[in-house]
Design a protein that fits this description.
The structure is a single chain. The chain is α/β, with parallel strands linked by helices. It is built from 10 helices and 11 strands. The relative contact order is 0.11.
Length: 295
């Protein structure tokens, strides 16, 4: 950007030319100006300060070398949350919003008032990353309806999730954190007591040629790749679920678009019932759900 008085209208046009997309340019200009949504139109004829210009230039330099826009901005929306994201965690994606929605429905059902008393649904988001799914449970369910455990094998990812939980205010009061691999992270008293286990585990096979270079180069490999078939994490979660779920408790996992049949068979082999494969808005296989026996 050139020095001197320049309006946000001109900066938006210039940024659009540099990034090739007007909406992406707007997000960058909003971040640099500190003015978001409909209010951004109110400042289009205001002049940017030197500090704002420097911020925009720095972000554009990062975009120019291929860094994902979400990391450049430092936050991204997920359902009703605005989550801090950086290279320590995967970028939240729209299809995972469907996973969160199904988990919220299952948790709400488990927490319904019975005989005049409300019980607290105990939930675990395994491999939480930024906390997107688990924090959506805590935020969108009625206050006190759920105790939500967020686990991750990456201490760095848990730090991001904790920071995002802090932004929930009182809604974050029922959130707990545990470091470790899948169920191994959870305290023993939760065995056989979980109403909902939800996970968006890594499901990409090592060496998969369909992975976009920007994803492979920038997002954490521990959250992307899972063995030669992309199913190692699913095996660990599905095999452990019957011991950790209460009778009738729900397991929900995100999957790759061609993994529905094999993951559903893994559910059946583990003794889970009412197994279903759910498709995303693009019609692709995206989520498998099932229930622990005895419900």
């Amino acid at each position: 950007m050139s020095d001197g008085a320049v309006t946000w209208r001109a900066l938006w046009d210039d940024t659009t030319a540099r990034v090739g997309d007007r909406q992406r340019a707007r997000w960058l200009c909003e971040e640099a100006s500190g003015v978001f949504g409909g209010e951004f139109h109110d400042v289009l004829d205001d002049f940017a300060t030197d500090r704002m210009l420097a911020h925009l230039d720095a972000m554009l330099d990062r975009v120019a070398v291929g860094e994902p826009l979400q990391y450049v901005l430092g936050h991204w929306s997920f359902r009703r949350l605005d989550l801090m994201v950086d290279r320590r965690v995967l970028i939240p994606r729209p299809e995972t919003e469907l996973l969160a929605g199904l988990a919220i429905e299952r948790a709400l059902s488990a927490a319904r008032v019975t005989a005049g008393e409300r019980r607290t649904a105990v939930c675990a988001d395994l491999g939480t990353g930024s906390g997107a799914v688990g924090l959506s449970l805590a935020f969108e369910l009625p206050r006190g309806a759920a105790e939500v455990w967020l686990t991750d094998a990456s201490p760095d990812a848990l730090d991001v999730a904790r920071a995002n939980a802090a932004g929930l205010g009182i809604a974050g009061g029922g959130v707990r954190f545990a470091h470790g691999s899948w169920f191994d992270a959870l305290p023993g008293h939760l065995m056989g007591a979980l109403d909902v286990v939800v996970s968006n585990p890594p499901y990409v096979a090592h060496g998969d040629p369909e992975v976009e270079p920007i994803v492979h180069e920038w997002e954490p490999s521990i959250a992307l790749y899972s063995g030669a078939e992309g199913l190692e994490a699913h095996r660990a979660i599905i095999d452990g679920a019957p011991r950790w779920l209460r009778p009738g408790g729900s397991l929900l996992v995100e999957i790759g678009s061609r993994q529905g049949a094999v993951v559903a068979e893994m559910f059946h082999a583990a003794g889970l019932s009412e197994v279903a494969v759910h498709r995303d808005l693009a019609g692709l296989e995206r989520i498998v759900t099932g229930l622990a026996s005895g419900g």
